[in-house]
Protein: glutaminase
Organism: Sitophilus oryzae
Amino acid sequence: LISRAFRRQFIIPEFQEFCKDIEEIYWKCKDNTDGKVASYIPQLKRMSPNYWGVSICTIDGQRFSVGDVAIPFTIQSCSKPLTYGIALDLLGSDVVHQYVGQEPSGRNFNELILDHNKKPHNPMINAGAILICALLKTIVGPEMSLAEKFDFIMNFFERLAGNEDLGFNNAVFLSERECADRNYALGFYMREHKCFPVNSRFKECMDFYFQCCSIEVTCDQLSVIGSTLANGGICPLTEEKVLKPESVRDVLSLMHSCGMYDYSGQFAFKVGVPTKSGVSGALLVVIPNVMGICLWSPPLDSLGNSCRGVQFCEELIKKFNFHRY
Ligand code: DON
């Protein structure tokens, strides 16, 4: 018991009570039938709008889940903070930010724009994430095959998730690649402006980006990934140091300012905790030094964020003072 206390077991002392409140908010949000499931690829369109899961993992390893928490979904843009974190860890912030900025774009996630330096605005939007994938491909070593690079990243994601086996949805990958006119347009636009690191293989970089989006997780697994970020890069379940604290700080800063598409400013104002959304309906919420939360429900609002997920965050902050300020 004492050793658990030292390991911050009591980070939320009344965890059972807290979970009751979480469950209450869960049921309140379940009634929300707003939004539309993403329909740009059939595999996402087929997702039931009724799915709704909430999972929590605290930095001392306490867990709570309610709803559809064991159904795999593709991680989509929630992969962006993770690939960014890995790139920071391997290359350092200075190198990474020679290629990608730190400003919110103030536009949609797939908008055909670069910043005034002709760099992607930040790593949380498609352009920036594609470039991060290009960087990862070069740093992992030009001698490695695409398959080995994928394994390397998958292994990193799994370590962030406490050594859980994650999935890969090949149908989503193939569909993403098939319906990727805008992402290719972004890629070509960046290639025109010499944004890519030298020796990047364009097609491989694009494929690698689609593959990262097609990794499958459950709500439970993504909450553990969130808790590793909340815990400065050390996974609370395995106690492995997966990312450096300085990398995690950069990741959380940009999740805070750019993680919720063109709702990021309002979200940072109202909810005030670093969060990243994905088109499959996931929200990866990090409450630094406390816990990771995954919210998953496919119906999205007009900006692309999960309706139930956003409502949950707003209700959570009304009840508990997790807002950073
Ligand atoms: O690039 C795409 O269109 C998707 N595979 C990822 C989209 C997503 O989740 C929105 N991201 N910022």
Notes: The chain has one domain: 13-319.
